[in-house]
């Protein structure tokens, strides 16, 4: 008979050294490569590997051809689209695929919509799904641009400084990029009911902070409150109602930063890795 102390010691040892027969996660590849397009702003470049890198690597560990390239986030849609086109061509060349699944986060969704209008990309997108993309703009953009000259110049200067530091070969044009996000400008250029032929078009919107019970990433508290007064419930950057386009897939209880893995604490309330993995499951179920 084993003593109680011995049994407890064995249980502790088992937890420490016991091996699972198949410890690796199952491979669940999608039919087409998945490309994650980041949005406006470069502060997330402080993350190792850059914006959405961890999410792409998480998907790769599950057999998905996943990519998270970068372009200068402080430039206009037209300029970013040219850079994205170069990145997407490289994905097609490397994988031998003839179509792509795009996931556009924030303004990355607008960039993807701009690309889809180019006849060179006709029929090459199997899906275009956006996450907290300002399809109806964000009132924060004109709010910043309407500040007194000294404050506005300071804000634009910070954006361009970060943009130059992160993307030396692609000089930023932050003020022009910000002006493009004004609600009337976005709706005029990207009608909310315009979708992409022969592609699954869908969207997720986000919510957090004021007016919700979802905690807010501290650096986004002030813009969240400003935007709530201008446009209601939002995720700190994009109004929830602005995020809808195509099929509505659901509302994410996460602020704009947490949606791409930036968080103040290790709260399990929202997991960006699990979100993108679940999205790939949905693509797989659709044969994409």
Automatic annotation (TrEMBL):
It comes from Rubrivirga marina. This is AB hydrolase-1 domain-containing protein. SUPFAM superfamilies: alpha/beta-Hydrolases. It comes from the Bacteria. Pfam families: Abhydrolase_1. Gene3D superfamilies: alpha/beta hydrolase (3.40.50.1820). Residues 79-138 form the AB hydrolase-1 domain.
């Amino acid at each position: 008979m084993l003593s109680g102390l011995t049994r407890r010691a064995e249980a502790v040892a088992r937890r420490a050294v016991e091996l699972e027969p198949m410890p690796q996660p199952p491979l669940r590849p999608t039919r087409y490569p998945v490309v994650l397009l980041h949005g406006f702003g470069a502060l997330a470049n402080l993350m190792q590997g850059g914006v959405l890198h961890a999410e792409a690597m998480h998907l790769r560990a599950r057999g998905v051809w996943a990519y998270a390239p970068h372009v200068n986030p402080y430039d206009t849609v037209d300029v970013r689209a040219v850079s994205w086109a170069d990145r997407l061509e490289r994905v097609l060349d490397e994988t031998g695929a003839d179509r792509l699944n795009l996931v556009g986060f924030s303004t990355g969704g607008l960039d993807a919509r701009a690309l889809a209008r180019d006849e060179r990309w006709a029929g090459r997108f199997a899906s275009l799904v956006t996450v907290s993309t300002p399809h109806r703009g964000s009132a924060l953009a004109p709010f910043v641009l309407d500040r007194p000259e000294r404050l506005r110049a300071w804000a634009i200067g910070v954006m361009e400084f970060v943009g130059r530091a992160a993307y030396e070969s692609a000089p930023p044009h932050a003020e022009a990029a910000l002006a493009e996000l004004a609600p009337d400008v976005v709706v005029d250029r990207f009608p909310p009911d315009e979708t992409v032929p022969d592609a699954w078009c869908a969207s997720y919107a986000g919510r957090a902070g004021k007016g919700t019970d979802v905690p807010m990433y501290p650096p986004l508290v002030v813009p969240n409150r400003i935007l709530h007064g201008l446009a209601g419930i939002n995720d700190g950057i994009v109004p929830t109602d602005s995020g809808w386009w195509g099929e509505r897939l659901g509302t994410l209880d996460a602020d704009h930063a947490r949606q791409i893995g930036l968080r103040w604490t290790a709260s399990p309330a929202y997991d960006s890795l699990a979100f993108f993995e679940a999205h790939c499951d949905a693509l797989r179920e659709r044969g994409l």
